[in-house]
């Protein structure tokens, strides 16, 4: 994968998940691709797509206010994981949209859309420091691709290390526990479910 889209893993765990769908026609594949891209930048929909046991997401703008629109670079996702959240994030994990690569062209044989997220501080100002169970420098990149009649959705986690660089003892323990669970496959289950759902036909995206 192009390093401008998915960073090189230099420390901690890396994670790659890939799912694809073969469509019956170019028209069907193009519609599937467009639908998947729209779903990807609509984080409040992710919980519905990934299942009732998945995290819930809300979209915030750079000023720390809720946003009723599709995600853009500079926005933040408030992540509500099952169980207690970090004190640094007011009870929530936070990530920010650091890049969106849009190479969509329905007339071409190939097209691609990607979004990269990284751990962030709480933009509402209710906590201090990076509010996420992974430390600053970790990233999650989602890539939607269409090649001919095949559409794929993939997830790429990089530099996944527990965020223990905090003076808050609760957060240090909590982040270690959650990051360990993610390393053992709990996050893979959520991202696998989401990537599969991005390619589905159901209305909702």
What does this structure look like?
- This protein is of the alpha+beta class and 205 residues long.
- It has one domain: Alpha-D-Glucose-1,6-Bisphosphate, Chain A, domain 4 (2-Layer Sandwich), CATH 3.30.530.
- The protein is built from four helices and seven strands; from the N terminus they run E-H-H-E-E-E-E-E-E-H-H.
- Strands 1-7-6-5-4-3-2 form a seven-stranded antiparallel sheet, covered by helices on one side.
- The longest helix is centred in the N-terminal third of the chain and has 15 residues, at 26-40.
- It is globular, with a radius of gyration of 17 Å.
- It starts with 12 loop residues before the first strand and ends in a 7-residue tail after the last helix.
- The mean pLDDT is 91.
Distance between the first and last residues' Cα: 26 Å
Structural class of the helix and strand makeup?
A: alpha+beta
H/E element order: EHHEEEEEEHH
Number of helices: 4
- Briefly, what CATH class? Alpha Beta
Our Rg estimate from Cα atoms comes to 17 Å
Number of domains: 1
Overall pLDDT confidence? 91
Query: How many individual β-strands?
Result: 7
Beta-strand content estimate: 25-35%
Roughly how much helix do the residues carry, as a percent range? 10-25%
Oligomer: single chain
- Biggest sheet: strand arrangement: 1-7-6-5-4-3-2
CATH architectural category: 2-Layer Sandwich
Shape label? globular
Reported for the largest beta sheet, the result is: 7 strands, antiparallel
Q: Within the CATH hierarchy, at the fold level, what is the topology?
A: Alpha-D-Glucose-1,6-Bisphosphate, Chain A, domain 4
What are the low-pLDDT stretches, counting only 5+ consecutive residues below 50?
none
């Amino acid at each position: 994968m192009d390093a401008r889209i998915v960073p090189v893993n230099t420390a901690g765990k890396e994670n790659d998940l890939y799912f694809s769908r073969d469509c019956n026609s170019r028209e069907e594949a193009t519609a599937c691709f467009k639908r998947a891209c729209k779903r990807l930048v609509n984080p409040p929909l992710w919980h519905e797509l990934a299942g009732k046991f998945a995290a819930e997401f809300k979209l915030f703008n750079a000023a720390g206010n809720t946003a009723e629109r599709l995600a853009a670079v500079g926005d933040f996702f408030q992540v509500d994981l099952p169980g207690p959240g970090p004190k640094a994030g007011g009870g929530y994990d936070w990530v920010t949209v650091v890049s969106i690569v849009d190479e969509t062209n329905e007339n071409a044989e190939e097209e691609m859309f990607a979004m990269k997220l990284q751990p962030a501080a709480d933009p509402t100002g209710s906590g201090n420091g990076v509010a996420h169970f992974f430390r600053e420098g970790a990233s999650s990149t989602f890539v939607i691709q269409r090649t001919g009649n095949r559409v794929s959705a993939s997830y790429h986690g990089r530099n996944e290390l527990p965020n223990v660089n905090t003076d808050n003892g609760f957060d240090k323990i909590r982040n270690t526990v959650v990051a360990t669970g993610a390393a053992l496959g709990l996050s893979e289950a959520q991202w696998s479910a989401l990537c599969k759902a991005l390619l589905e036909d159901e209305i909702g995206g």
